[in-house]
Amino acid sequence: MSRRRAAAAAILLLAAAGYGAYRFHGMGNHRAADAIAAKARMAAWPGPRVATAFALAAPGAQQVYLAGDMTGWEDNWIAMQRGSDGVWRISVQLPSGQWLYKFIVDGKWISDPANPLSDDDGRGGRHSFVLAGDGEWKVPAGAPRGVVKTFTAPSGTLTNLYLPPGYAAGKPYPLLVLLHGSSADANQWYRTGVVDRFMDGMIARGRIRPFIIVMPTSGDDYTGASEKEIIQQLLPQLQRDYGVRLRPVDTAVAGMSMGGFGAFYLAQRHPDLFGLAIPVSGAFRPRYLDSLPRPLKIPFQLQILCGSDDFLLSGNRALRDRLTADGAKFSYQESNGAHEWHYWNAQLPAVLTTADQYFQTAPK
């Protein structure tokens, strides 16, 4: 299959899948722009490059490409070379961090069968990822490890609960509610975001102190039934079973994309519970922003993060401008990145550090 025909088939497949966590899916008009932007982000990302090898045993394939965060997922695919052993290989110089990818084998998109680092892509398939170079996700050898417990919420949805190393029942711990994006579930921050590795590594290096993280699943955008379940059922359950204190000084909420919206929405509606909100790449629609009261009061600490090449950037800037006009106190930061896991992976240490600093300094 030619590259042009493979690209056309892939766009139809991706649009049908609705792969909503990524900018490129269902947005064919942005293909060339996304590929160019991906190259620019790669060039602008600070730090050394890491030679990262990709390989796929496919002796019967005619063409194999690498596509992912490093290519913008679109026309900038990287052609792989077939060896005499039938294994297709390529080495790519990547900035340190997390990079999601798939292989395109004769027009068919697949995850890497040899890589255990993979997760559901939200639409019936899987993606793979690599963690290139050094980062806070690396846990020192011999360091104590936390535990991730999985349980089912009353609605039947999945919930993941991270308990830090040395967790002791009856001891009060601060709580971070960490919200996933569209077309995903509680596993997104755990399986793809490897948040447990970040926590264990940062605790072992003394960068943060232990706290609990709960990762619920939302069937909507954290409004309606999901809001009710989190506020009225999940949080009281954690208070009862794990000793968290449901006070604003001990409870924070963060999330990315749809979860970024959810973090702001829940904190704005429940300041009696959340003292800190960190929306990352938040999905702030004009209709929602228009519905907010004037002046917009923010009785909690707020830190807004967004990539400078994120397709949701305009909504984040609109919220920033609205808050500024209303005299609200908040923090806003744009940095290199798009609506992708490489950016969210790079921001996660700042999210966890901000939460820890808040828990330590908030007036008790």
Describe the protein's architecture and organization.
With 364 residues, the protein is an alpha/beta fold. The protein has two domains: 3-132, Immunoglobulins (Immunoglobulin-like, Sandwich), CATH 2.60.40; 147-361, 3-Layer(aba) Sandwich (Rossmann fold), CATH 3.40.50.1820. It is built from nine helices and 17 strands. It has helices at residues 3-17, 31-44, 187-192, 195-204, 225-242, 258-269, 286-291, 313-325, 341-361, and strands at 49-57, 64-68, 78-79, 81-82, 87-95, 97-105, 108-110, 118-120, 126-132, 147-152, 158-163, 175-179, 212-215, 251-256, 276-280, 301-307, 331-335. The strands form three sheets. An eight-stranded mixed sheet has the order 10-11-13-12-14-15-16-17, sandwiched between helices. Strands 2, 3, 6, 7, 8 and 9 form a six-stranded antiparallel sheet that branches. Strands 1-5-4 form a three-stranded antiparallel sheet, with no helix packed on it. Helix 7 links the parallel strand 15 (276-280) and strand 16 (301-307). The longest helix is centred in the C-terminal third of the chain and has 21 residues, at 341-361. The protein is globular, with a radius of gyration of 21 Å. The relative contact order is 0.11. The model is unreliable at 1-31 (pLDDT under 50).
What does the average pLDDT come to? 88
> What's the structural domain tally?
2
Strand order of the largest sheet: 10-11-13-12-14-15-16-17
Beta content comes to 25-35%
CATH architecture of the largest domain: 3-Layer(aba) Sandwich
- What is the C-alpha radius of gyration, as a whole number of Å? 21 Å
CATH level 1 name of the largest domain = Alpha Beta
Low-confidence stretches: 1-31
Order of helices and strands: HHEEEEEEEEEEEEHHEHEHEHEHEH
Overall shape = globular
Structural class by secondary-structure content? alpha/beta
Which percent bin holds the helix content? 25-40%
Q: Can you count the helices? A: 9
Query: What is the CATH homology-level superfamily of the largest domain?
Result: Alpha/Beta hydrolase fold, catalytic domain
Q: State the end-to-end distance.
A: 64 Å
| CATH overall fold name of the largest domain | Rossmann fold
> What about the largest sheet?
8 strands, mixed
What is the tally of beta strands? 17
